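fyi for ur records
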Amino acid sequence: MAGSAVPPELGIAEILRLKYGDPPTGWGPLLRRRFGYRTPDDLYEAQVSALVAPGSSWADIGCGHELFPSNKPLARLLADRAGLLVGVDPDETLEENPYVHRKVRALLTDFRPEQPFDLVTLRMVAEHIPDPEAAARALAGMVRPGGTVLIYTVNLWAPVSLIAKCVPFGLHHPLKKLLWRTDEKDTFPTYFRMNTRQRLAQLLGAHGLRETGFHYLDDCRTLQRFKLLNGLELSIWRALSALGLHYPETCLLGLYRRD
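which gave:
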């Protein structure tokens, strides 16, 4: 992975303990530990944990009803650590979020904070943004000088993203439900207009947000519901890793600093 000002590995052991227990329980966590694999969510959560300083101000864009769907203990820990945590989302599921200190039912491009934030995070949001220029401009206006924007999203060139671009939106939820048991309320239209490293750097750099770290996160979760198939995914991942290659399915994790 590319270098970062704050490596995602920082605090990963604590993230895994909070999520899965010590020792971990369930065949999924045990299988991943046997292969030495950490999910993109694990690494994103470790990165956020490293960036949320005591008393800091933090805005999470598009959070809906969860900060970290698979790690509620960490969500509570970081919500208590932050001085101010604002959830920004136009969707009504925001009202169900028990962690954010303030709830703002608004699009990113319509939100006007009273004060800029130390940290702004977007977890699996960038692929749903129809106007990336306006979004980049809004993000630059939300973060203080020296502050960070952290974007975690899918890779445009990953197989699942390419399939999603070709499949009619009406079929997205049935496919997601089959693979990951997601709720229909968590399925939104996708545009994939901010989903390469180059595009993110171009968009955010034009508004004074400089890339300070970037990671391609191998994503072996497509078949995670099925033990044998997930084991096959992880076996392929380990073989590719031994050759210094990424798994075909990847997520993007970018850090951008306002100078």
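The CA atoms of residues 80 and 99 lie 8 Å apart. thats all i got for now
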